[in-house]
Fold this sequence. Notes:
- By secondary structure, this protein is of the alpha+beta class.
- It has two domains: 2-48 and 249-384, no CATH class; 84-215, no CATH class.
- The chain contains 15 helices and ten strands.
- The chain has helices at residues 2-13, 15-51, 71-79, 116-123, 145-151, 184-189, 195-202, 221-232, 242-245, 247-285, 287-295, 300-338, 348-365, 367-375, 378-384; strands spanning 57-61, 84-99, 102-113, 131-132, 140-144, 158-162, 171-179, 190-194, 210-215, 237-241.
- The chain has a six-stranded mixed barrel, surrounded by four helices.
- The longest helix has 39 residues, at 247-285.
- The protein is elongated and about 105 Å long.
- The mean pLDDT is 84.
Amino acid sequence: xxxxxxxxxxxxxxxxxxxxxxxxxxxxxxxxxxxxxxxxxxxxxxxxxxxxxxxxxxxxxxxxxxxxxxxxxxxxxxxxxxxxxxxxxxxxxxxxxxxxxxxxxxxxxxxxxxxxxxxxxxxxxxxxxxxxxxxxxxxxxxxxxxxxxxxxxxxxxxxxxxxxxxxxxxxxxxxxxxxxxxxxxxxxxxxxxxxxxxxxxxxxxxxxxxxxxxxxxxxxxxxxxxxxxxxxxxxxxxxxxxxxxxxxxxxxxxxxxxxxxxxxxxxxxxxxxxxxxxxxxxxxxxxxxxxxxxxxxxxxxxxxxxxxxxxxxxxxxxxxxxxxxxxxxxxxxxxxxxxxxxxxxxxxxxxxxxxxxxxxxxxxxxxxxxxxxxxxxxxxxxxxx
Length: 385
């Protein structure tokens, strides 16, 4: 208790310097907390947007234009794996679409699903931006909002969809809903329908071009895809995963994560150096007091502990106010920009590690001043005085 009381007295003796030091340390801690949670939230948002518009794992024919043979046995084997949560059969093919108001054909990719419930679990079709209702009949489809705006049509309108633009009349379909996957490209590219409807449009009844799967942990999709490939051991199929298909995104996120950690490290280093330098100056200014304490019987080790305790005190106070400052920045960001940009979610694990690291840095920063105090000799201090 005596050493702790002395440490507090040393801090209070230079109030302005201590306050400025705590403010600087708090800003550094709060900034680290804000940046770390912001980047993590951006990464999660980008990944969620990516995987919400595509399966975690996809199986296709080696020749992408061909159908999968004996797909029932593949489904049976893959569905038996514990990691698989959702499956869907998909019939996909290029077609052309035109509205009776506009005779110009538009390229479209028809995607037929064995079940819209399965499709929604994989592609998140019926999200909060969806308008209309689910198709119930074989001639009902869901169109992207981008294509609907392009063609000038809406819910309840009729489409003429043909496998070739040269055909005067294709399959007559009714638009039952409009989807929005958060991607302008996809909103103009896909037409969703039941697999039977797709079979009629593409003249491919009871055919499947791909099998889509969702897994419990999307970050392990590449590992699970490799296990599926080994388990099936077929040369006529290709097993791909969302990471592989979005390698550029993953590399960008990885580079962003590394650069963020580097920035956070140097922010922490700079505030730690600030504490170390201030305490080192304090050792010089407190030479007489240290000499008196040693003359009264305090050991070299205990004199060093005084400055270690100062680092701990300053670090604890700075970390506490830094935590509050970080929460304030996150709150203000979510309040003014979160809806339009990204909502920052506080990561408990990262926050605890960040705060613990800040306190540890403050204590470590006191090592040099502590050593300086330990090495001071009473006789030398008297001679200097």
